[in-house]
Design goal:
Structural class: mainly alpha
Order of helices and strands: HHHHHHHHHHHHHHHHHH
Helix content: over 70%
Radius of gyration: 22 Å
């Protein structure tokens, strides 16, 4: 799947370049395409370089948490669920601990912590994988859950809306929470059905129902807060939890009489090795995406969709937010740039800006997650991971649009 998709990025861009040259007399398209190749190659390296420090720090902390036993204690809360949905992972495996920690970090909005934990989990799952170049069912499920990435508090989006002068920056909180929950559930069930995972067990449904109640309760409590205090509360919860986790990990190391400094250094070295390994995969994926965007195909698809929606007689107010929707699975920074551009052009409290914000928070950057996570363990055959993740993206984006019509005031 990745082989075909990556090649199509370049071939479609090449055909568009020929078309622009012959029929639109626009030879400068080739300058744009070549510039995209060089700039995105540099961007991919810079991303890996910037990620190195984060990986080293968090994998160092995870090594302390692992040796002190705190990860094992925490993972016991979710182990009954994951032992059912990842039956090929042995009970008590450290891979389950890392998977649970990664998902917990994503739910809490701790992005900087989630990626290193996820890469560690993918490496440990790879050790259990009998076919090293093909993703196992556990790796596919784990990747799709990460690609949908349900988050309780979208701090970054709320802060951007506040910086742009929104009168109610937290208005997008509830629709984002609901849209990303829908995306995650669709991703989970699509993988479960495709791989025939044993999800119809009462334990699995007990966790799923509890998850939905938690999401609903969190949305209700957030809406009950005064408007002016919601952003500060979100920032306090996210940052407070992040630093609390750091402190708890170190404290647990001291309690267990572990040399926390040397343990941290040992884990940090693993982070550096991972950062080096993912560079080729990031370069391949980001360059392919960049030339696809530079060719103008993305703009043509959006214009075509707008005309089709207008022809059907549907409301087209959301069309201005579609660039964020199209780019979100391809590039997180690109989607964020499109969201901010929508703020600038239409106003941060406009309906297109509202939709763009909800779309931005509804899913993760699927191709980035896929390239980083599978690239770290050198997996080239990803099975149903990509189509299931894209299905989750589609449901998340459609839900974001529909919920925006429901919640926009």
């Amino acid at each position: 799947m990745l082989n075909i998709l990556w090649g199509m990025f370049f071939l479609c861009a090449f055909l568009m370049g020929i078309s622009q040259t012959l029929f639109n007399h626009n030879p400068s398209i080739w300058n744009n395409l070549v510039a995209a190749v060089f700039s995105s190659s540099q961007t991919a390296f810079e991303i890996a370089l910037n990620l190195t420090g984060i990986l080293c720090f968090w994998l160092g902390l995870l090594k302390i948490a692992e040796k002190s036993g705190i990860i094992r204690s925490f993972s016991r809360l979710l182990q009954p669920l994951f032992s059912k949905i990842m039956p090929e992972v042995p009970a008590g495996s450290p891979a389950l601990d890392s998977v649970i920690m990664n998902i917990s970090a994503n739910v809490l909005g701790l992005d900087n912590a989630a990626t290193p934990m996820g890469l560690k989990a993918m490496e440990q799952l790879q050790e259990l994988n009998p076919n090293k170049d093909k993703a196992s069912p556990a790796q596919i499920l784990f990747m799709v859950i990460n690609a949908s990435s349900v988050t309780l508090i979208p701090i970054t989006i709320l802060m951007y809306r506040s910086q742009f002068g929104s009168l109610n920056p937290t208005a997008v909180f509830v629709p984002i929470l609901l849209a990303t929950s829908i995306s995650t559930l669709v991703g989970f069930f699509s993988v479960a059905i495709a791989l025939r995972l044993p999800i119809w067990h009462k334990i699995v449904w007990a966790y799923l129902i509890s998850f939905m109640l938690l999401i609903g309760g969190g949305a209700w409590y957030f809406c009950s807060l005064p408007t002016e205090s919601r952003l500060s509360f979100s920032s306090f919860v996210g940052n407070g939890l992040l630093f609390s986790i750091i402190s708890i990990f170190i404290l647990s190391g001291f309690i267990r009489k572990i040399n926390v400094y040397e343990t941290f250094i040992a884990g940090a070295k693993e982070g550096f090795d991972i950062a080096i390994r993912i560079i080729p995969y990031l370069v391949a994926m980001l360059v392919g995406i960049a030339v696809f965007r530079a060719s103008g195909i993305m703009d043509a698809l959006i214009d075509l969709m707008a005309k089709g929606i207008a022809f059907l007689g549907w409301n087209t107010d959301f069309v201005a937010a579609l660039p964020t929707a199209f780019i979100k699975p391809l590039s997180g920074s690109g989607a964020r740039a499109m969201m901010l551009e929508t703020y600038t052009h239409y106003g941060v409290d406009s309906f297109p800006a509202f939709v763009s914000s909800v779309i931005q928070g509804s899913t993760e950057t699927t191709f980035y997650v896929l390239a980083v996570y599978f690239g770290a363990v050198k997996i080239s055959r990803v099975g149903v991971a990509l189509p299931c993740a894209l299905l989750a993206d589609i449901f998340g984006i459609v839900s974001a649009i529909l919920l925006s019509y429901l919640f926009y005031q």
